[in-house]
């Protein structure tokens, strides 16, 4: 897009210059002489020595910088190599994404050490020549962190300046993130922070990240107190995602995070309790062992996705515990690895639940014909407002139409036969009894990959 705009502007300027030259041929001799003299003065030589150079489109600086910012990183760098105008805007290029792919470093054709060295040299050169002014986004995907740890601090110090909005640091080995770079107002413009495989230790009293809207921590070492220090000044936070943060024992979300609407907690194995007082939390996704969950008496949570460990019955937990914890729930997705609901004693109902999806993916992997599907009828009994009910016993991305291999996920012959028997039973005993106001969708086994040989 940026190159197309640039070419269009250059063509317009060339056309204007051509028209002026045509008009000059028909003008007075004096005007033509003045034009020639001016060209000679600019060039500093006679006409026979050197022709005047084309200086490029005469456009406002902000428009040129905008055109440059629309180019991909490699195209923007090439433009800066051939144009002094774009060389100036390159020092203020707003979006820097550094990875082996964006830098054109192919692992298959080079040694690992050579790639790490070239990656370090290139990134270091670009950031040292960047003024820091105008930089909005920095994304670092460092695959060989052990070789570049000494450089990352200086790269972040260059990038984290007032005005930076997004920082993504994706490393594959342990790195100690320097939180001091966020102090003294330098981090108050950051809206999106994504960290992986690092230690993040905000100190008590640190005043930063006041504009933070999205926080994503994956395999990050951070305690509940340190996370609390971070959240204490993140009044604009809207989305919080925590994955494999195994130092967390409890998660407490304060009431003054009024904008927080999305929370994901995924496989934080030491976590024992989540307490949220955020008044506008609408969506919560959780994977892990059952924990103490407190969402306040006036919880407005409406969308919940829960998947418990393989030893726990997610369906029983959902139907017995959640109606009282999230009374306003409208959408519920449950992924279960256990067999049946085992006749639960239900004290409350999902009075507002409209959409229910139960994914039995774990069951299909170790299929048991004894699975008590009828026990799931209990969900229908406690959901009087239910409009959509989806029951799935396989992985949604396992179809050949979406897999890179071009084939469905493998199933045993016994599982395929049972699937076809179930399909025949639905056709014979259920389809005819479904009311006209209800739409029943039954996903059949793949005719290409899971056909039955006769």
UniProtKB/TrEMBL annotation:
Source organism superkingdom: Eukaryota
Signal peptide: none
Domain At1g61320/AtMIF1 LRR: 126-392, 396-447
The protein's name: At1g61320/AtMIF1 LRR domain-containing protein
UniProt organism field: Urochloa decumbens
Lineage: Eukaryota, Viridiplantae, Streptophyta, Embryophyta, Tracheophyta
């Amino acid at each position: 897009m940026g190159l197309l705009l640039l070419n269009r502007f250059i063509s317009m300027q060339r056309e204007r210059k051509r028209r002026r030259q045509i008009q000059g041929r028909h003008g007075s001799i004096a005007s033509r002489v003045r034009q020639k003299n001016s060209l000679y003065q600019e060039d500093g030589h006679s006409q026979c020595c050197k022709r005047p150079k084309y200086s490029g489109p005469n456009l406002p600086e902000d428009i040129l910088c905008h055109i440059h910012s629309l180019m991909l990183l490699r195209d923007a760098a090439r433009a800066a190599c051939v144009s002094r105008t774009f060389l100036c805007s390159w020092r203020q290029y707003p979006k820097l994404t550094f990875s082996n792919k964006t830098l054109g470093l192919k692992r298959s054709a080079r040694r690992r050490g050579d790639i790490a060295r070239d990656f370090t040299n290139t990134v270091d050169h670009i950031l040292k020549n960047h003024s820091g002014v105008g930089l909005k986004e920095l994304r670092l995907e460092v695959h060989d962190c052990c070789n570049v740890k000494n450089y990352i601090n200086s790269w972040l110090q260059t990038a984290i300046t007032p005005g930076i909005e997004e920082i993504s640091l994706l490393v594959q080995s342990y790195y100690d993130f320097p939180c001091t770079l966020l102090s003294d107002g330098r981090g108050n413009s950051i809206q999106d922070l994504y960290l992986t495989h690092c230690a993040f230790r905000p100190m008590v009293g640190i005043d930063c990240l006041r504009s933070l809207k999205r926080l994503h921590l994956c395999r990050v070492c951070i305690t509940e107190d340190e996370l609390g220090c971070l959240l204490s000044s993140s009044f604009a936070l809207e989305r919080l995602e925590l994955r494999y943060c195994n130092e967390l024992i409890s998660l407490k979300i304060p009431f003054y995070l009024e904008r927080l609407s999305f929370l994901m907690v995924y496989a934080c194995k030491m976590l024992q309790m989540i307490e949220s007082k955020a008044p506008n939390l609408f969506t919560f996704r959780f994977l892990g062992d059952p924990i103490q969950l407190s969402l306040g008496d006036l919880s407005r949570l409406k969308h919940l996705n829960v998947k418990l460990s393989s030893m726990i019955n997610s369906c029983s937990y959902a139907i017995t515990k959640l109606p009282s914890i999230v009374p306003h729930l409208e959408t519920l997705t449950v992924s279960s690895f256990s067999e049946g609901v085992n006749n639960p004693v239900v004290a409350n109902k999902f009075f507002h639940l409209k959409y229910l999806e139960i994914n039995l993916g774990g069951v299909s992997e170790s299929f048991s014909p004894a699975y008590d599907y009828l026990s799931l009828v209990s969900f229908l009994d406690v959901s009087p407002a239910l409009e959509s009910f989806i029951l799935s016993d396989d992985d949604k991305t396992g179809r050949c139409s979406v897999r890179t291999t071009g084939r469905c996920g493998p199933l045993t012959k016994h599982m395929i036969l049972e699937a076809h028997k179930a399909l025949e039973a639905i056709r014979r005993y259920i389809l005819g009894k479904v009311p006209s106001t209800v739409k029943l969708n039954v996903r059949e086994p793949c005719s290409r990959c899971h056909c039955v040989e006769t």
